[in-house]
Each structure stands twice: as C-alpha cells, then as structure tokens.
Amino acid sequence: MSNTQSLRTPVASRQRLRAVRPDDVVPVPDFLPPGATWMPAPGHALPARAGQPPMVGYLVLVPADQAPPAATAAERIVEAVDAVRDDPIRIDPERRTAGVEGRPLDLTYLEFELLAHLVAHPHRVHTRDQLVTTVWGYGHVGDGRTVDVHIARLRRKLGPVHRSGIVTVRRVGYKYAPVSTS
Fold first, then answer.
1. Structural domain boundaries of the chain?
2. Contacting residues for 143 by C-beta, under 8 A, at least 6 apart
3. What is the mean pLDDT of residues 76-98?
4. Domain 73-176, CATH 3.40.367.20 — does that match?
5. Cβ contact 173:133 at 8 Å
6. 98 close to 107: Cβ distance less than 8 angstroms
C-alpha cells in the first residue's frame, strides 16, 4: 500500500501533517480526503497579520457529501449579535441593507459590495487592485481611481463621525477600522 493510500482518513492526514519536518516538501493531495481537489488560494483571500509575512495556502474543494456540517442557526445568530454589538456599521447581506447607528444607508450596488467587503475584514489592508478584483470582478476595465471615487462616496454617506472608519493607507489602498462611539 502506498503512503498516499494510507492517508485517506482525516485523522491520519492530521497525524501525518504533524510528522512532516519543516524542510520537507510534501504533495498537497497526500492530505486531502478522497474526492477532494485543490488549487492555490489568491494571496488576498488569506488572513494577514500585521508585521507578519503573507500566508500561503490552498483552497480545498470537498464533495458536498463529505463537507463539514454547516453552522447551526443558533451559532450564526450568536456570531451576528457579537459582530453587531462591536460595530456601529451594520451590514445585512441577505437583505442587502446597511446602516450606521440605526440610520439606513442609501447605497448603490457597488457601494454596498465595497462596504460589506471592508467591514467583513476589519483592520486588513486591501490594495486598490484587490478591491477592483474582489468587488468589481476580474472582467472590470478600470483603475485604482475607480476605487477612490467609490470610497469618497461611501465616506460621505457614512457621515462625519464614521467616515474616518475607512482609512487610506498611503501608496497601498484602504482598510476598515471601526470607529468607537463611546
């Protein structure tokens, strides 16, 4: 039996991963469940920590019958309540609504997408190119100035207190840093 065949259970894969030395090169498929496929993850899709090198990772596609169970409704409510409690800007992706301290915002489709993306990743710096790719899509023909214009419109709509929540990172792009109102 080959080494790969012996790693077909998730537990065996985890145990094997711990046994790999840091300088070893091991094929990614050796750690996947049967039927799963993988591809390199785009750099901006991975979490980044300040002062740390960017992460390298993979997106793993697992057949639906082997996927981990989805979060229960109660878990989703707890996560939503925790997020709402800390941030005066509220995003409801299902209803496609946004508000600041209870005041609804009148946003265009792209303004909503941009704000929802920034709020979903607080304190993470996004380059203009990453925002164009993520919010507008790969087929968009435009430049970083398009992002600048939409950010300016968002700041106006957020109002004088919360406009500073969208922070310009010079020569890089933008990040969202929640403004504390206390």
1. 5-66, 73-176
2. 128, 132
3. 69
4. no
5. no
6. yes
